[in-house]
Amino acid sequence: MPSHFRPVNAILGAQPRLGPIPADQIIPWFCITGVSYLVGRGFNLSWMAIGFIAAWGMSTWWILTGGQSWKFTAKFVPTPTWSRGYARYLRFIYHETENRQTPPQTRRPIRQHPDSF
């Protein structure tokens, strides 16, 4: 049975790539290379050792993340803590004297202390 849909643009839905390298690996590899360079220069290592450290880091990152890096990196994003709460509504611009029901001169205390003079 022939398919009813004919792909117009075959690249739609494909993962972006730079040759054989997935595009989502480029920025982490750049960071890993930078860290390897700093570590290598900090310990006064040879360029061969720095390249080996960078290759090891990049290959490890590629193995861990694969083609779907979001599955690995999403594990380190904390989930939001939802809670239910209530707050009294307050206007953004609130002025107490405008909303006061009794004028401040006529206000009396509700109870007075019996020992008051």
Give a written overview of the molecule.
The protein is mainly α. Helices cover 38% and strands 3% of the residues. Strands 1-2 form a two-stranded antiparallel ribbon. The longest helix is centred in the middle third of the chain and has 19 residues, at 47-65. The model has no long low-confidence stretch (mean pLDDT 82).
Spatial arrangement of strands, main beta sheet: 1-2
Question: Which of globular, elongated, flat, extended, rod-shaped describes the shape?
Answer: elongated
Record field, number of beta strands: 2
Content-based structural category: mainly alpha
The helix tally amounts to 4
Using the CA coordinates, give the radius of gyration. 33 Å
Low-pLDDT regions: none
N-to-C CA distance = 102 Å
Mean pLDDT: 82
Question: In percent terms, what proportion of residues is strand?
Answer: under 5%
What string gives the helices and strands in order?
EEHHHH
Tell me the major beta sheet: 2 strands, antiparallel
Portion in helices: 25-40%
Keywords: Membrane, Transmembrane, Transmembrane helix
SSE layout:
Layout: E1 17-18, E2 21-22, H1 26-42, H2 47-65, H3 69-73, H4 96-99
Antiparallel strand pairs: 1-2
Short description:
Helices cover 38% and strands 3% of the residues. It has helices at residues 26-42, 47-65, 69-73, 96-99, and strands at 17-18, 21-22.
